[in-house]
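#lab-general

N.A. 3:47 PM
ok so I finally got the sequence cleaned up, no stray characters, all 109 residues accounted for. can someone with queue access submit it? mine expired

B.Y. 3:52 PM
send it over

N.A. 3:53 PM
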Amino acid sequence: MAEALNIDMTGWYQATGESCFQHLNRNGIQIAVEQAAGSQAALAIASARKKAEAVVIAERLVKDTNWLPEPMRFEQPMAAIASDPESIDDIENDDDADVETDDFEEAAE
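B.Y. 4:20 PM
back already:
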């Protein structure tokens, strides 16, 4: 399995009731809290009487855990990062000299 480089989004995003938990159903909130703070913390969500209460509890439990919702967890395969610095220079300095304008059809006016 290829190594992955984690791109840390925790410096830019904090899961809050408004930014995250209001948009999840109760089961989703419980899963998020379990991922962030463990199964004991998730029991607090299960015991909440209403979703609004679960949102407030989740925000409190997830605060300062650096938990991120799945869509914000980015991993970039190490293979995608050029291991040869010269290859990066080749890409950056490529001026498309081998592309001729005759290769493209003229746009209709």
